[in-house]
């Protein structure tokens, strides 16, 4: 009996019943799950982008076989004449040796291929016709387009990250709207009690604080559940993505644990602040 | 002390525009420690005057001074603390339906930040005073109209307010209970509380003679 008494004492607005125990946390849990997926997508895309951008510095390379090394000027002339090519520069043999030293050691006598670096005006272009025309002018010339793919993947990763952040902003916006609607429903169903507390001398901060604490707690609980559901989902996804991000990654270590841990407090804060604002705005109608 | 100076009150009409004045040109002073009957026919404006006195409503014109504080809409932040020095018995009780009699009476003390251990004896004593010992844990719907009214009275006086306003507090009481309630109110008045009681029971007024403020059509027609 004493327990019941003190339970009600802490909840004179009857908010435990007015603010449904399941609907709001359920919605917030779903949104937390979406937020977790978006966050993980953003983090994953960032990791892929970083990895691929290392490779992308190589751009597109053209190799002339050692016996055609004298044709470098001809190759440059042909390439620079092509409208798709933004720039073409030879890689001098000293730098070649430098690049190769870790693999080959000091071998000055080894015949090295002549190499040039290209930049294309448009990443989306198919490099195959360029290779064909070049091979027509300089027999044996080969075009290595790996860099194009890397750059394309990096661009894709960047837009995936952008979309993920936009989804995150959208989820936060929907969360604010859901909490505002829930708060308004709670206020409507406890209108009389609010007016009684107000007439007995409760401050706006007191009344708004009671709503905000309750709603913040429900939102944080919902987000905790959503984050918990997200863990196995993200572990499975990260398992699939691991080979792309550098191979031997353990799914558990790849999860954005910090982001997941921040979801409940952030959701609680959003709920608390939104409830404060909605209730205070409603209370303006009372003297 | 309660002072009305040329006070007018206009309720908004349902279409949102300002309706007719429910109270007009009220000018009177109730001295500190006084006991006043507020009389008048139904619709005369008694409840409206009391709502102004306990700051549930602000005047649309004129000056209102309650417990030595000039009440102004731009000083809203000061109103909650002022309200906590005023006890109110509402005409319709206004108990919280999901709180026990004890918790309803304890509510104003809890809002004022009193500790659980210190408010318990006060609430228990107040419930005994209005004859509700043993009913502490009953919910309002488990109580009769008269018992609910006595819970409302206990809630109004438990804070030992400086000003006590009661809106037809004997409406649901038999004549014995009504006399006991009035004895309680006059006792509080003797201890220094300014008391205003709205009623249309001439029998009660005759039993407890005191100055009266008589309203008709939202205006004061007699004071003294
Ligand atoms: N909330 C309200 N909205 C609009 N008009 C009201 C409201 N409360 C009271 N009135 C009007 O104010 C006048 C006085 O009412 P009230 O103060 O309740 O009188 P009494 O308590 O003496 O019966 C009545 O004409 C009533 O219709
Ligand atoms: Mg009335």
What brief labels describe this structure?
heterodimer, A: 287 residues, alpha+beta, Alpha-Beta Plaits, four-stranded antiparallel beta sheet, 11 helices, 4 strands, 70% helix, disordered N terminus, B: 224 residues, Rossmann fold, six-stranded mixed beta sheet, 10 strands, 33% helix, binds adenosine-5'-diphosphate, binds magnesium ion
Written overview of the protein:
The complex is a heterodimer of chains A (287) and B (224). By secondary structure, chain A is an alpha+beta fold. Helices cover 70% and strands 8% of the residues of chain A. Chain A is built from eleven helices and four strands; from the N terminus they run αααβαβαβαβααααα. Chain A has helices at 2-9, 15-18, 23-56, 72-81, 93-104, 128-137, 146-189, 191-199, 204-241, 251-254, 257-283; strands at 60-64, 85-91, 114-120, 142-144. Chain A has a four-stranded antiparallel β-sheet with strand order 2-3-1-4. Chain A is rod-shaped. In chain B, helix 3 (101-111) crosses helix 4 (116-129), helix 3 packs parallel to helix 5 and helix 4 crosses helix 5. Chain B has two domains: 1-85 and 167-224, 3-Layer(aba) Sandwich (Rossmann fold), CATH 3.40.50; 92-160, no CATH class. A six-stranded mixed β-sheet of chain B has the order 6-7-8-3-9-10, sandwiched between helices. In chain B, strands 2-1-4-5 form a four-stranded antiparallel β-sheet, covered by helices on one side. The radius of gyration of chain B is 17 Å and the shape is globular. Chain B is of the alpha/beta class. The complex binds adenosine-5'-diphosphate and magnesium ion (MG). The site of adenosine-5'-diphosphate has 10 residues of chain B, from helix 1.
Question: How would the blueprint of this fold be written?
Answer:
The complex is a heterodimer of chains A (287) and B (224).
Chain A: H1 2-9, H2 15-18, H3 23-56, E1 60-64, H4 72-81, E2 85-91, H5 93-104, E3 114-120, H6 128-137, E4 142-144, H7 146-189, H8 191-199, H9 204-241, H10 251-254, H11 257-283
Antiparallel strand pairs in A: 1-3, 1-4, 2-3
Helix pairs in contact in A: 3-7, 3-9, 3-11, 4-6, 7-11, 9-11
Chain B: E1 2-12, E2 18-30, E3 35-39, H1 46-53, E4 61-66, E5 69-70, H2 79-83, E6 86-89, H3 101-111, H4 116-129, H5 145-157, E7 163-167, H6 175-190, E8 194-198, H7 202-207, E9 212-216, E10 219-223
Parallel strand pairs in B: 3-8, 3-9, 6-7, 7-8
Antiparallel strand pairs in B: 1-2, 1-4, 4-5, 9-10
Helix pairs in contact in B: 3-4, 3-5, 4-5
